[in-house]
Design brief:
Blueprint lengths: L2 H16 L10 H30 L27
Helix pairs in contact: 1-2
Length: 85
């Protein structure tokens, strides 16, 4: 489950729990909302954990581009502009 799906389940569960007055015979909408919020929280934690594991495996900090995407300028003709004071 992705982080976005976990947040979505939490939001839908909160809407069902706190913002609806629907009464269906044999079904508790409040309980369904609580179940969705719990499932969303578990999915959110698992998604964050998975993201941290994969970022460590690649050897980069979260939010940093992967090693393949980093480019360094190694052209000998390249010179930095002199500092402006």
């Amino acid at each position: 489950m992705t982080i976005g799906a976990g947040i979505f389940l939490i939001a839908v569960g909160a809407i069902l729990k706190f913002a609806t007055n629907i009464h269906i015979q044999g079904v508790s909408v409040d309980t369904i909302g609580v179940i969705l919020m719990i499932a969303g929280a578990v999915g959110l934690v698992l998604g964050i954990f998975q993201e941290l594991i994969w970022s460590r495996r690649r050897g980069v900090a979260p939010g940093e581009p992967p090693v393949e995407e980093r480019r360094e300028v190694r052209d000998p003709a390249y010179r930095e502009a002199p500092p402006r004071y």
